[in-house]
């Protein structure tokens, strides 16, 4: 039994090339391979064309010892993945009775008759390991020949993912002598280029663990990955490297480790302290509330929010003074302050967040150009306001996302005290 040292992923289907279907299989398989410590050398997509499939399969095996294919195992004449892989290995196809019986049972349980062309899915390359599919019709297959391995899985994620967990992962686990653990550092207030400059020596000198920055919508993420014989050792290696990163200038801008998002970090932080949150939004139009309520179970922290776009709504719903709006305008420090306090008091929350600004593309003035945003946070200790001068050249969506993220970041930074 040979270890799998490297893998490539080949997703099959003309519909993927046309953009009719989003290719989620490649990212899913890559993540699962990384957890097994198997490096992925390349991902590719190929249409339902015999010659191009022959070429793609041969190229993959020239670089890697394992090729994982998804799609093209259906009953129609253009489903040719199994045929092309079998041809590459010089194998004939034979009927697998167990696969055929399972398919017949599947159709019977659905109250449907199985058509003759479905029998094509039960044809297996001679000598292949058949991966029975309890979640659909098409079985998967594993072919081993010398130091090369091909793994074929059906394309629908609803079938591929459980088959991977139940059929493929145990098979590959026996052929991997290490694991890879990755941990993500989430950063706000320092761009990717600045982070890269501060951590370049780590990126260039370290081989295990590795350090790599990635840009996001106004944020930055640094991935730390380590390879070891077991998960605990690899995790400890990541933790040690993360502590080294915290000692650099980047450390001042870290808001969480493996928190996935600013909203998740904020909700987790407030939950630990038994605190509640409400928000009043103008320029972000409910984006903060949307992002928070995307988190399942947030109701113990998030009480609600108000989209107070018009001045009248600011006055009637959350008590912004008419005089404040007249004197300073909707986009002002004073209005943001009253919005945050007003929504906190109106909903009885411990923390209130507010945003008001000009997201564009129009509406800007010389004094308040597009990208001018005031964010505010209110607690029983008082109110804090911050002015964001975002680039007017960025899109409306980008400005709104940055405003929402920074507002939640301000709340996170201010609510680090214990409630007592």
Walk me through what this model shows:
The chain is α/β, with parallel strands linked by helices. It has 3 domains: 7-173, MoaB/Mog-like domain (Molybdenum Cofactor Biosythetic Enzyme, Chain A), CATH 3.40.980.10; 179-257, Alpha-Beta Plaits (2-Layer Sandwich); 262-414, Maf protein (Alpha-Beta Complex), CATH 3.90.950.20. The chain has helices spanning 14-17, 25-35, 50-63, 81-89, 97-109, 157-173, 192-205, 231-246, 262-272, 287-293, 311-318, 322-328, 333-347, 396-414; strands spanning 7-12, 40-46, 66-70, 93-95, 123-125, 129-131, 140-145, 148-153, 179-188, 210-215, 219-228, 254-257, 277-281, 302-307, 351-357, 372-379, 382-389. The strands form 4 sheets. The protein has a 6-stranded mixed β-sheet with strand order 2-1-3-8-7-6, sandwiched between helices. It has a 5-stranded mixed β-sheet with strand order 14-13-15-16-17, sandwiched between helices. Strands 10-11-9-12 form a 4-stranded antiparallel β-sheet. It is elongated and about 85 Å long.
């Amino acid at each position: 039994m040979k270890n799998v040292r490297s893998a490539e992923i080949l997703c099959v289907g003309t519909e993927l090339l046309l953009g009719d279907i989003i290719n989620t299989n490649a990212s899913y398989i890559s993540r699962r391979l990384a957890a097994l410590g198997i490096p992925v050398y390349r991902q590719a997509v190929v249409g339902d064309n015999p010659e191009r499939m022959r070429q793609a399969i041969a190229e993959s095996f020239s670089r890697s010892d394992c090729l994982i294919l998804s799609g093209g195992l259906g009953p129609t004449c253009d489903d040719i993945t199994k045929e092309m892989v079998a041809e590459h290995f010089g194998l004939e196809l034979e009927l697998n009775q167990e696969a055929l019986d399972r398919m017949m049972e599947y159709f019977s349980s659905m109250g449907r008759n199985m058509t003759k062309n479905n029998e094509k899915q039960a044809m297996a390359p001679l000598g292949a390991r058949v991966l029975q599919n309890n979640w659909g019709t098409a079985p998967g297959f594993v072919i081993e020949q010398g130091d090369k391995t091909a793994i074929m899985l059906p394309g629908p994620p609803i079938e591929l993912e459980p088959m991977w967990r139940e059929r493929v992962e145990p098979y590959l686990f026996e052929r991997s002598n290490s694991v890879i653990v990755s941990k993500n550092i989430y950063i706000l207030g320092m761009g990717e280029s600045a982070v890269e400059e501060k951590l370049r020596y780590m990126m260039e000198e370290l081989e295990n663990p590795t350090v790599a920055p990635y840009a996001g919508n106004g944020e930055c993420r640094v991935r730390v990955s380590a390879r070891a014989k077991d998960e605990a050792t690899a995790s400890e290696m990541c933790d040690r490297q993360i502590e080294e990163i915290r000692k650099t200038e980047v450390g001042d801008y870290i808001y969480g480790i493996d928190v996935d998002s600013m909203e998740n970090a904020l909700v987790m932080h407030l939950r630990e302290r038994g605190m509640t949150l409400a928000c009043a939004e103008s320029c972000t139009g409910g984006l903060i509330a949307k992002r928070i309520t995307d988190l399942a179970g947030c109701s113990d922290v998030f009480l609600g929010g108000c989209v107070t776009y018009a001045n009248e709504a600011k006055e009637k719903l959350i008590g912004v003074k008419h005089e404040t709006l007249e004197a300073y305008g909707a986009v002002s420090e004073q209005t943001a302050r009253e919005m945050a306090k007003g929504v906190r008091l109106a909903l009885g929350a411990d923390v209130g967040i507010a945003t008001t600004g000009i997201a564009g593309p129009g509406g800007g003035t010389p004094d308040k150009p597009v990208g001018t945003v005031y964010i505010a946070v209110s607690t029983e200790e008082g109110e804090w306001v911050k002015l964001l001068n975002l680039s007017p050249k960025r899109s409306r969506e980008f400005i709104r996302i940055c405003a929402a993220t920074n507002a939640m970041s301000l709340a996170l930074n201010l609510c680090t005290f214990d409630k007592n």
